[in-house]
Design a protein that fits this description.
By secondary structure, this protein is an alpha/beta fold. The chain folds into two domains: about 140 residues, Rossmann fold (3-Layer(aba) Sandwich); about 70 residues, SG protein - dephosphorylation function (de novo design (two linked rop proteins), Up-down Bundle), CATH 1.20.1440.100. Helix content is about 50%, strand content about 20%. The protein contains nine helices and seven strands, in the order E-H-H-H-H-H-E-H-E-E-H-E-H-E-H-E. It has a seven-stranded mixed sheet with strand order 4-3-2-1-5-6-7, with helices on both faces. Helix 6 links the parallel strand 2 and strand 3.
Length: about 220
């Protein structure tokens, strides 16, 4: 069985769910608006530039989960999905996922965004298997810490190898779809790398290597 790997943000959806969650928290008054928005935008710019300190960012992005009850945050998350994520859903992305399903491929979303945000998005897309940054959850509450290696840049390879270790699967004949140059480490080792609405750096590399460049947006 071949693996079909997908980045999530700006690949399967038309936006960045991590950054959108920060904007949602600001707009709902759940965080200090000015301070949080500036930091959220600064981290997103660093991500785009390839200079993001992922551990620093995760400490920032997971902090709100420690400031409210889990029940309250789950309710806010449901509203976030309705208001902020549903408008970003892409019919062409759903069709592409279905094409791989029809070919009998094992589909896996692999994202640097934390599981609290991404799990319901994967469910919307009908994808059961996902690697994401894992927030620590103890005795019914989020601690603000991360468990294991963040699935970011080379960390995606580390986490993928951990996931593969317990399965009868390999990267032979594998696919990986991504928009971001941050995913170049993984794109370089799959048999079928595909750039999806790529950033400038990834577009240059894709053109150099002869990788397909596609768009899942209208």
């Amino acid at each position: 069985m071949s693996l079909a790997l997908f980045d999530l943000d700006n690949t399967l959806i038309a936006g960045d769910s991590d950054h959108a969650w920060g904007e949602f928290l600001v707009n709902k008054g759940l965080v200090d608006a000015d301070e949080y928005k500036k930091a959220n935008d600064r981290y997103y710019a660093a991500y785009q530039q390839g200079t993001l300190d992922i551990h620093d960012y995760l400490a920032f992005s997971l902090r709100p989960l420690t400031q409210y009850s889990t029940q309250a945050m789950l309710a806010w998350r449901a509203l976030f999905i309705e208001e902020s994520i549903l408008p970003l859903m892409l019919p062409k992305a759903v069709a592409l996922l279905n094409q791989h399903r029809e070919q009998g491929h094992q589909i896996l979303i692999i994202t640097a965004t934390n599981r609290f945000i991404t799990e319901p998005i994967a469910q919307l897309l009908g994808v059961e298997s996902m690697i994401a940054a894992e927030p620590e959850f103890i005795d019914g509450s989020y601690t603000g810490n991360i468990v294991g290696v963040p699935s970011f840049q080379e960390g995606k390879i580390t986490r993928l190898n951990e996931w593969l270790a317990n399965k009868d699967l390999s990267l032979k004949n594998s696919w990986f779809y991504s928009d971001s140059h941050n995913d170049l480490p993984l794109l370089e080792i799959v048999d079928n790398p595909v750039a999806v609405n790529p950033d400038d750096t990834l577009r240059v590399r894709a053109n150099q290597a002869g990788w397909p460049i596609i768009s899942l947006r209208d």
